[in-house]
Amino acid sequence: MKWVFTVSSRRKRTRVIVSEVKRVRRAASPGASEAPGTTTAPFTRDPLESPVPLPASFYEPSAEFVAPALLGHFLLRRAPDGRWAGGAIVESEAYLANDPACHGFRRETMRNRSMYGPPGRAYVYFIYGNYFCFNAVCAPQGIAEAVLIRAIEPSFGDSWLQTNRPVRDVCNLTSGPAKLCLALGIERELDGADLCALKSAVIIAENPEVKRFVREHGPPIITTRVGLSVAGHMPLRFYLDGSKFISKRAQPSVRGRRSAKSRLAAGS
Asked: What is the dihedral of CA 8, 243, 180, 150, to 10 degrees?
């Protein structure tokens, strides 16, 4: 699987990102975060039968590398009946410590405190007086970086998702950061939630078929972020072009339509 980069003159950076994605995903392999001598329960084909949250080590690198590595893994919310609802992440955006568009760029506040870590926590904020956005906190504690989850492909708990956000076209259900929060019932009370703990109300779980999912929903796209008044040129948005749930698709230029030679599949 080749990455498609929609911003010209960034070929070298694309190779770095793809290489780091492989390294980050290796950190999520079963037992990667366990102490020597311990074992982890094997994955099942049904991720809801025994979901395994991605370990905190997965989120320790920069959000620039965690964001593309999250593609294909499951964002899951515990529904009122105790079951999991959600689906695979198909679009993400990275926000970095030296990034003027990042909420933590200037200083730590009450609003953005969760963004400063530890890694593997949720950062949930309120926008436009009506909506919430969900982020996964990355980088070592004290460094404000996070990945905004922009879209998921709903696969579990569809009836509950549609109850929360009734739509005629299912492709409009979770194809945007505010949309997915409405459908999953994610609000400010989940700010700071531990995404690595199975007891949490919201987790990001490993998809044991992530390689196949990315391959079938690719190619993966690297492009600029959406709706920013500053740092809009930074290529920090990632999505799977074959998914029908993408919030906004890029229009690659002739020069910018360059595919990375490295493969996306983790470990390949």
From this structure: -10
